[in-house]
Fold this sequence. Notes:
mainly alpha, 67% helix
Amino acid sequence: xxxxxxxxxxxxxxxxxxxxxxxxxxxxxxxxxxxxxxxxxxxxxxxxxxxxxxxxxxxxxxxxxxxxxxxxxxxxxxxxxxxxxxxxxxxxxxxxxxxxxxxxxxxxxxxxxxxxxxxxxxxxxxxxxxxxxxxxxxxxxxx
Length: 143
């Protein structure tokens, strides 16, 4: 049965707030995973650009004794070459973690705010900790 106008507004704010928090948690998790997985690329490209004479030309000791322009260029190229496979690894890691933690199941439909008696989506599947009892791998987050 439909909710009253005031109740619908309150539930709408609750659902929007919850979905926003879930979205920002997913975004934070995605940022952390990408930062950790892409750290080797970031470091290699940073040192390549830092020690190249045409870019930053640092006066650090390792730039003068170890890295010349050719090796700095090689570091830059290496960093950009290894970036593509690491992006794929980061995406796969995030997707695997999101599926295992069932993060996309936390998004609630708008009908939760409009109609009374609509259960929380994760509650219908046995709760957030249902994977400990035996996770149903056929559950899809977009249903």
